[in-house]
Amino acid sequence: MRKPIIAGNWKMFKTLSESVAFVQELAPKLAPFISVERVVCPTYIALAAVADALKGTGIGVGAQSVHWEAQGAFTSQVAPTMLQGLAEYIIIGHSECRAYLNETDETVNKKVKASLAYGLKPIIAVGESLQQYEAGETQQVVGGQVRAALSGVDAANMTNIVIAYEPIWAIGTGKSASAELANSIIGGTIRSTLNDLYGNQVAQSVRIQYGGSVKPENMQEYMSQPDIDGALVGGASLKVNDFTLLIEAAAKAKGI
Ligand code: PGA
Predict the structure, then answer these.
(1) Which long-range contacts (CB under 8 A, 24 or more apart) does 232-236 make?
(2) What's the pLDDT score for residue 199?
(3) Residue 49: C-alpha distances to residues 20, 55, 87, 89 (Å)
(4) Which residue has its alpha carbon closest to ligand 1 atom 1?
(5) What local confidence, expressed as pLDDT, does residue 18 receive?
(6) How many domains does the chain have?
(7) Which residue among 14, 79, 105, 201 is least enclosed by CB atoms within 10 Å?
(8) Region for 93 from its dihedrals, namely left if φ exceeds 0, alpha if ψ lies in -120 to 50, beta otherwise
């Protein structure tokens, strides 16, 4: 069985002290739910302190992006070597990075390969825009993003990869995709793309999250779908109670 994974993407929220105070309050509440993998992704500035505060709690830490070079003259960027020992996961290809920070399928692929080379686990975000959704292009766009992100990644590395299906029209809008729709893209488009690339065993073993306006009220519905293995959560991950309810709902829906 695929272990559910819920990751909180804090985006550009919370100062250093707010981040530490938050995880200190969160950790004891999430402690009982060891059957669910729980991850928080703070800003770079809070990463080391949050990682330190979460030591021994079983809650993992992720970064929100990474550069593909090991070091170099890349003002503002953070190298994978610098994240080793601090972050276990790296969100790569988030639609906000694609929209505002020139992230492309090519840079996503470079970041995925660099992360794996340094023992970091990518959470690869894919998803179509509203225009693409309305034009019926979802399968083609999402399948293409998955293929591009994984170009040159071998099957042995797929155990270290998580994919997040995040329709752009559902992120931060309050307009979530229906659980059935999300499950059909995840179970249909994404797993069949993985099947084409790596065969059925890999396709069935990779964990795939849904993301986009996930909240305590709709979490159980998503997690009751057979192909949805977790969530990448923005807004609702910024409140201790909401995040706790999400983890609780995941455990309940999967009966674990
Ligand atoms: P949201 O964000 O939960 O606030 O919609 C999800 C994401 O961007 O990962």
Answers:
(1) 232/7, 232/9, 232/91, 232/123, 232/125, 232/164, 232/166, 233/6, 233/7, 233/8, 233/9, 234/8, 234/9, 234/10, 234/11, 234/171, 234/172, 235/172
(2) 98
(3) 7, 10, 11, 16
(4) 234
(5) 98
(6) 1
(7) 201
(8) left
| pLDDT tens digits, 134-150 | 999 999 999 999 999 99
The residue contributing the CA closest to ligand 1 atom 2 is: 234
In the predicted model, residues of the chain with pLDDT beneath 50 are none
Q: What global pTM score does this model have?
A: 0.97
Distances (CA, A) of 245 to 2, 161, 218, 222: 21, 25, 11, 14
Q: Is 48 in contact with 97 (CB distance < 8 Å)?
A: no
Distance 199 CA to ligand 1 centre (A): 30
Q: Please give the residue range of the domain that contains residue 218.
A: 5-254
Q: Which CATH number goes with the domain that contains 188?
A: 3.20.20.70
Which ligand 1 atom is at minimum distance from the Cα of 211? 6
**Cα 28 versus chain centre, distance:** 23
CA proximity to 94, closest of 181, 159, 11:
11
**H or E stretch covering 61:** strand 60-63
Return the DSSP state at 73. Answer: S
Which residues surround ligand 1 with Cβ inside 6 Å?
Answer: 9, 166, 171-172, 211-214, 232-236
Residues 6+ apart with CB under 8 A from 12: 43
How many other β-carbons are positioned within 10 Å of the β-carbon of residue 101?
A: 10
Residue type at 35? S
pLDDT tens per residue, range 53-69? 999 999 999 999 999 99
